[in-house]
Amino acid sequence: MESTGSTTASASASTNGNAPATASGGGNWDAIVVGGGHNGLTTGAYLAHAGLRTLILERRPILGGACVTEEVWPGARVSRCSYVVSMLQPKVVADLELKRYGYKAYPLDPAYAAMTPEGPIIFHDDVVKTQESIARFSKKDAEAYGKFEELLFMAADFVRPMMIRNPPAPGSKAPADVAGLLKEAGRIAGMSQRDVQQLIRIFTMSVGDWLDSLFENDYLKGSIASTGVVGVWAGPYSPGTAYNLLHHALGELDGQVGSWGQVVGGMGAISEAIAASARSAGAEIRTDAEVVSIDSAGGRVIGVTLADGTVHRAPIVASGAHPKTTILDLAGGENFPDEIREDMEAYRTRGASVKINMVLSEAPVYEGLSEEDSRHLLTAGVNWCPSLDYLERAWQDAVRGVPAENPYVEMEVPSSVDPSLTDDDRWIATMFTQYGPTEHEQWPEGSREKYADTCVSSIGQFATNLEGSILEREVLAPPDLEDIFGLVDGSIFQGEQDIAQMAFMRPTPGLAKYSTPLHGLYLCGAGTHPGGGVMAASGHNAAQRILKDRRREGGLRGRLARRRATA
Fold first, then answer.
1. pLDDT tens digits for 369-409?
2. How many other CB atoms sit within 10 Å of the CB of residue 241?
3. β-pairing, 112-114 with 381-384?
4. Distance (Å, whole) CA 324 – CA 345
5. d(C-alpha 380, C-alpha 188), whole Å
6. In Å, how far from its chain's centre is CA 258?
7. Residue 557: exposed, middle, or buried by beta-carbon count in 10 A (0-12, 13-18, 19+)?
8. H or E element, residue 56
9. Has this prediction a pTM greater than 0.85?
10. Which of these, 107, 136, 109, lies nearest to 120 by C-alpha position?
């Protein structure tokens, strides 16, 4: 994400893409992409493959945004923010030939495990195996889990096709919107009344209420509910969190629906593969290139200005930066209608996630387990969230403005499937945790380490060698996620994900189709439909909108030229 500077270039510039380089050392392009996160790179790659001379600009010295692998410590590389893959769109993988450019992921089966004092509940891709694990704790819950999975994947099958197309806007008279609404209405008409009822419940109710209606075991409910609050400023009983659980069930890996994987080389390997595809089509990508303004004149975008004063010109600018940053700061809120500006000022973007990255001297060893279960726990995400009440209390701590006294924790050990992450025999481990407050002053000196100590001890009660094996540790609270990655208020999804900020409401109805009222400016980050996660869907959708608009404008210019020629 980019700087929040708001200077505006006053000099006019040609927008035909053929003018000579500007005196300030920049150049002229068909399209400029602000931000080298995985969505921005995806947009740039599609535009370059379509033949546009494309420039991608990234503020940091490394590509990837939050989808990045960094050598935080010498000889040790870590997925510093995002950490596992599932939601990356197969269409993008195929279109941009990402496997050809180095993208490879190891499927994780089982994907995760809920820790309890009586042993782990292990979640396999095979529902029957998961039910067998649950049955050790509750035969009733084992039976209910099969129905839960059926319902979850019914809803996912309904939502999944919507991920890589524009969300139709209710109330719009535009033919495309009317057609889109009729298409979705037709899909709903083909469902049973019961399925429609269940779909609406998932879209609107809390994950806690939903799970309470299905299961009795506290550890099972707490573990599943933690997925419903990942990355959101909400507790398990907050309305809309059931949808967030569904959101994380929308992915697939190599054709296996709902499967998760560890990326070889860390998550940054995804971004690097997209960048390689973009470069193969002629895109130019520059790091250490901080954009401080998106420049416009006469209601049209004309290019960008960098922090060092360099000016680049293009009639198209796509921003993968946070939508509030893009609209209110980089492009200047005064260049938009009052309604857009007011909506973006009200756009909710709080996050409560705390990422802990570690280098270990040895792999975690889980005590008292069978050899098979020990092997599973080493590669799976190990989850500590013993109840819904536990999760709610952690959430209420953050609401009060303090780090959770007892956070929920999920730990991965990517070195267990990818030893190339270190140059020696050390191990990489990461923890995704919640909850933490959003402001710097809410994290006084020593609070990050105290919080991390609690997280380590939570898993350490099962892997007793964990605490003594930590060689290096980094704790990234929400303010750090903003400072490093530009994630405003620490929201890993570039904005809160609930029914009021999804689909045609994301980030606001006037910006929901990637274009903006400032002609030539587009949004392509996770703050647009379909939201956060390493999907590349927003980047794909924005590129398709840009190319569609370009074709339409080209056709209009051609018709006008023919009319003039025959006049």
1. 888 888 899 999 999 999 999 999 999 999 999 999 999 99
2. 26
3. parallel
4. 7
5. 36
6. 16
7. exposed
8. strand 54-57
9. yes
10. 136
Task: Give a three-class secondary structure readout of 206-246.
Answer: CHHHHHHCCCCCHHHHHHHHHHHCCCCCCCCCCCCHHHHHH
Quote the CA–CA distance of 41 and 49 in Å, as a whole number. 12
Cβ–Cβ under 8 Å, residues 514 and 537: no
| H or E element in which residue 257 lies | strand 256-257
The Cα 143–Cα 131 span in angstroms is 7
Question: Which H or E run includes 155?
Answer: helix 139-159
Contact predicate 77/266, CB 8 Å: yes
Q: Does the pLDDT of residue 146 top 80, yes or no?
A: yes
| Helix (H) or strand (E) segment spanning residue 312 | strand 311-313
Asked whether the bond before 407 is cis by omega within 30 degrees of 0, the reply is no
Torsion of CA 395, 401, 407, 409, to 10 degrees: 90
* Cα 130 from Cα 119, distance rounded (Å): 14
Structural tokens at position 45: 């790659």
Phi and psi of 54, rounded to 5°? -120, 135
Cα gap 120→114, rounded to integer Å: 5
250 CB-side CA count, 13 A: 25
Q: Does pLDDT of 559 surpass 70?
A: no
DSSP E strand stretches across 348-501: 353-360, 381-384, 408-412, 427-434, 470-476
Nearest to 500 by CA among 531, 539, 541, 524: 531
207 token code pair: 């994950």
Instruction: Give domain 31-65+87-102+267-347+507-558's CATH architecture.
Output: 3-Layer(bba) Sandwich (3.50)
- For residue 264, give the amino acid letter: V
Residue 278, pLDDT > 90, answer yes
The residues pairing with 32 across neighbouring beta strands, listed in sequence order, are 55, 317
Q: State the CB neighbour count (10 A cutoff) for residue 284.
A: 15
Contact (CB, 8 A) for 258 and 86: yes
Could you read off the pLDDT of 41-89 as tens digits, one per residue? 999 999 999 999 999 999 999 999 999 999 999 999 999 999 999 999 9
Nearest in space to 119 (alpha carbons), one of 369, 444, 286: 369
With contact defined as beta carbons under 8 Å apart, do 351 and 231 qualify?
A: yes
Q: What is the pLDDT of residue 372?
A: 87
CA–CA distance, 519 with 335 (Å, rounded to integer): 11
pLDDT of residue 262: 95
- How many angstroms separate the CA atoms of 559 and 554, rounded? 9
Look at residue 5 in the predicted model and tell me its pLDDT.
Answer: 34
> What is the Cα–Cα distance from 283 to 49, expressed in whole angstroms?
8
Structure tokens at 514: 């990637």
What tokens does 26 get?
């920049």
Rounded distance between C-alpha atoms, residue 221 and residue 389, angstroms: 10
Q: Which residues does residue 404 pair with via DSSP β-bridges, in sequence order?
A: none
The full set of domain ranges for the chain reads 31-65+87-102+267-347+507-558, 110-258+350-485
192 vs 442: CA distance, rounded Å: 49
